[in-house]
Write a structure and sequence with these properties.
The structure holds two protein chains of two kinds. Chain A is built from 14 helices and 20 strands. By secondary structure, chain A is of the alpha+beta class. In chain A, the strands form six sheets. In chain A, strands 15-14-16-13-17 form a five-stranded mixed sheet, with helices on both faces. A four-stranded mixed sheet of chain A has the order 1-10-9-8, with no helix packed on it. In chain A, strands 4-5-7-6 form a four-stranded antiparallel sheet, covered by helices on one side. Chain A is globular. Chain B has two domains: 45 residues, no CATH class; 218 residues, MetI-like fold. Chain B has 13 helices and no strands. Classes of the chains: A alpha+beta, B mainly alpha. Chains A and B meet through α1, α5, α11 and β16 of A and α2, α3, α5, α7 and α8 of B.
Chain lengths: 521, 314
């Protein structure tokens, strides 16, 4: 009994002291949203992942932001003027915008935040997009008056505003200098967003509180811009790694919104009276990549043959439970550049595949297809592709590894073939750029064709929409011919929302937006 | 006694050093890169290289190990790559959370298993014995995550008696804290009670066959006294050893349960760290786990003479 007393005492002590990591009960007007993992930091575009971006974008805002249709519109800026030569972007700041600490937003604040972004020591993810290595090179940032800021570029850049708005760049969010510690390191975001950071209990939740003095735009809510008025007192992102537990919590009323609902759960949740389903096509891409340097797969006929064995419609219908549309173009359907030239999905043709294989002298050599079970769709695609290829006598061996190992292999180009998921790219040039480039310097790139790279470079620089569309149409035609990869589909992001929540809507970025969301009485 | 404890602790040092070296090397042998996981699929090779340099991951492994070992001597386990938190504080905080659940569950499991096992041994071959053995085998066979999910569905979802997700400490809100602990503790108690009951039963059966138990009965002692004074203390030794092993095992991580019940414990921290290839956190968790094994085994050994006077610490 002594042991029992001691053990119980120790347990009680541990539970009591444990525990600076405790979590308080949320207040009644708190909207509770599931995150499947903790965020990495609150520093916009620095040490981030998708969850970190989703949370941070509620606290900071950039000069521009993505609209619902993934075009770029002003956010903190009242207007954006592009010089006729494309070498200067002038932003006029909105009047009356204040930071969470009450300080008014000025051009100096923008320049201050920008200076930190451009400092390599910050390790801003998007630095290469602005320092000349990527989309643009900013040569100067000028503040002619308190509400005007001018960015000067070395060369015209079609993607300058798009890069600024990118969510993985933290939307190039503007924050007050009070966000930094005295030594210049990041403390917490003091931004202009509809919510401010209230509490982050690591491993448990991130709680945001409504910005009482939020200065909303007048136009309707759209994407990450428009009217972003907060309608609930608090938002709590609750970390629930297990999908089954998250579903149970939603049904029990312990969560109000869960994102990333699996295809299997949608049917069950749709049938309930207390839950509504919100779906939206996203801009990510599921694809099968081929290593074109591989002794076997360097022959385009074999790659084409594999593509011909795939019944893409059946694969996509099965893995997405019929919610996603097959798409053989890297440009996702929500994009306005996804025109007729990008909507063709060739049917499977096993006979033609066999002829191509015979021409190429394929003798049943095994082809390794790397996949992972971290994302069930990727594994299912691999299994179906294996079975479909078998119909033409192509032997595919699956290699199942964990996601971190797969990312490593992808980066090094260390694969024969691989089922991969690309995160959302919100511009067609970026959609092609994600797999196009010289393998010598970027082994992760699947498509190494100098002509294609020249065309793609042009698309990054020209602002003429018609010319850009023509380039993308040409690229997708070449892609179908050379088959360095087989695009399959962009996923549909599905959220389940309790019926007492009003105003929640999914969108192309697949991340929750909780401004404009309220509780029904 | 003090000399014995010191000797045991000194012997633990080489064990921990070996564990440290093995953990450091093995973690780096796993394919995957923390920076790559952090930056995702859109990162350029320059970005990856820059960040690797910033975290010192571009240095030779021997240099990285030396720097890590140097810091450990100063009691610093480094900082998490994912969020920059000090690893020592992070690991300790998560350990305390897990320890609260594990110690409560094991204490309850012992409280159930020892009387049940002894009773079954006393009634060996009867229907009651069969029921206890069958119940213990059933508990032993149920995966803890499944049992946890079932309890969540029944008590959280259907009956709505307990919250499904979240965590509050007892110090912050006693009743709310207890409500979050009930289901994980019950799940762990039930799954561990099975194995402990079987051990308690077989130990008690063995002791009951010994001459001094027959002698005690022949003296005319009441059966309850025979069990309480002569059987239970002598049969508890093997169960106590098993309790030590179970504790060491569970304190090292109950990742699956912590994931199901959204408990921010050590096991979940370790699993997340492995997914993210957060080397300092993985190393910190595994070092602590090794340390726990050493300490728990030492405590078990030191307590053994309390249950079996034939064994002395010497």
């Amino acid at each position: 009994m002594t042991f029992l007393r001691t053990a119980l005492g120790a347990a009680l002590l541990a539970s009591t002291v444990g525990i600076g990591a405790a979590g308080a009960q949320p207040a009644a007007d708190t909207l509770r949203v599931r995150l499947n993992a903790d965020i990495r930091s609150t520093d916009p575009g620095v040490n981030r992942d998708a969850n970190s971006d989703a949370v941070v974008m509620h606290m900071v805002e950039g000069l521009v932001a993505f609209r619902e249709d993934t075009s770029v519109g002003p956010m903190l800026a009242e207007s954006v003027t592009v010089a006729p030569d494309g070498l200067a972007y002038t932003f006029r700041l909105r009047d009356g915008v204040r930071f969470h600490n009450g300080a008014p937003l000025t051009a100096e604040d923008v320049a201050f935040a920008w200076k930190r972004y451009m400092d390599p020591a910050t390790q801003w993810r998007c630095l290469p997009e602005f320092d000349g290595r990527g989309a643009s090179k900013v040569t100067a940032v000028e503040t002619p008056d308190a509400r005007t800021i001018v960015f000067r570029l070395e060369r015209p850049a079609a993607l300058f505003l798009t890069s600024m708005a990118r969510v993985d760049c933290g939307g190039s969010g503007i924050w007050h200098r009070a966000s930094l510690n005295a030594d210049g390191t990041w403390k917490e975001p003091v931004g202009t967003g509809p919510f401010r950071l209230a509490e982050w209990r690591r491993g448990q939740f991130v709680e945001l509180a409504k910005t009482e003095t939020y200065a909303a735009r007048s136009e309707a809510r759209t994407g990450h811009t428009g009217n972003k008025t907060p309608l609930v007192g608090k938002v709590r992102f609750v970390i629930v790694p297990d999908a089954a537990a998250a579903k149970a919590a939603l049904l029990a009323g312990n969560l109000d919104v869960i994102t990333d609902v699996s295809a299997n759960d949608v049917k069950e949740l749709s049938a309930r009276n207390d839950v509504a389903i919100e779906s939206a096509s996203t801009m990510d891409l599921q694809a099968i990549l081929f290593q074109t340097n591989d002794p076997l797969l360097k022959d385009a006929r074999i790659r084409r043959a594999i593509a011909l064995t795939l019944d893409v419609a059946e694969i996509v219908g099965t893995v997405s439970e019929g919610r996603s549309k097959p798409n053989r173009s890297p440009i996702p359907p929500p994009s306005s550049f996804h025109t007729a030239a990008h909507q063709t999905v060739p049917p499977a043709n096993v006979e033609q595949a066999r002829r191509l294989l015979a021409e190429a002298g394929y003798r049943g050599e095994a082809i390794k297809l790397v996949t992972t079970q971290r994302y069930p769709a990727l594994f299912d695609i691999a299994v179906m592709a294996q079975a479909m290829a078998q119909r033409a006598g192509i032997k595919i061996d699956l290699e199942v590894i964990d996601w971190a190992a797969q990312l490593d292999r992808y980066t090094k180009g260390d694969y024969q073939s691989m089922v991969f998921t690309y995160s959302a790219r919100l511009d067609p040039s970026l959609s092609f750029d994600m797999f196009t480039g010289p393998k010598a310097t970027e082994p992760r790139k699947a498509w190494d064709n100098p002509e294609v790279q020249t065309l793609l470079r042009e698309s990054f620089q020209t602002v003429d929409r018609t010319r850009r569309q023509a380039i993308y149409d040409d690229l997708v035609k070449r892609l179908m011919d050379e088959v360095p990869m087989v695009a399959l589909y962009s996923s549909v992001d599905t959220s389940a929302v309790r019926r007492n929540v009003a105003g929640y809507a999914g969108w192309a970025l697949g991340q929750p937006r909780l401004w404009g969301v309220s509780f029904r009485n | 006694m003090i000399g014995y404890v010191l000797r045991r602790l000194l012997w633990a040092l080489p064990t921990l050093v070996l564990v440290g070296v093995a953990v450091f090397v093995l973690v780096r042998l796993i394919p995957g890169d923390p920076v790559q996981v952090m930056l995702g699929d859109a990162a350029s090779p320059e970005q990856v290289a820059d960040m690797r340099a910033a975290y010192g991951l571009d240095r030779p492994i021997a240099v990285q190990f030396w720097l890590w070992a140097e810091r450990i001597v100063d009691g610093d386990l480094g900082r998490a790559l994912t969020n920059g938190q000090p690893v020592a504080a992070l690991v300790w905080e998560r350990f305390l959370t897990s320890a609260g659940i594990v110690l409560s569950a094991v204490a309850l499991a012992v409280a159930i298993a020892v009387p049940a096992g002894t009773f079954a041994a006393w009634r060996q071959g009867s229907l009651a014995d069969l029921a206890v053995v069958a119940g213990a085998t059933l508990l032993l066979s149920i995966p803890s995550f499944w049992l946890g999910l079932m309890l969540l569905l029944v008590f959280g979802l259907q009956l709505a008696w307990l919250p499904v997700v979240g965590y509050v400490t007892l110090s912050e809100d006693l009743w709310a804290g207890l409500s979050f602990l009930v289901l994980p503790v019950i799940t762990l108690t039930l799954t561990e009670a099975g194995v402990l009951t079987r051990m308690a039963r077989s130990s008690a059966i063995e002791v009951m066959r010994l001459d001094y138990v027959t002698h005690a009965r022949a003296k005319g002692l009441p059966e309850a006294r025979v069990l309480a004074r002569h059987v239970l203390p002598n049969a508890f030794g093997p169960t106590w050893t098993l309790v030590g092993l179970v504790l060491g095992n569970l304190l090292g991580g109950i990742a699956v349960l912590e994931t199901v019940f959204t408990i921010p414990g050590l096991g979940r921290l370790l699993v997340d760290a492995i997914f993210n290839r957060d080397y300092p956190v993985i190393q910190g968790c595994l070092l602590l786990t090794a340390g726990i094994y050493v300490v728990v085994n030492l405590v078990v050994d030191l307590c053994y003479p309390l249950f079996d006077p034939r064994v002395s610490a010497q």
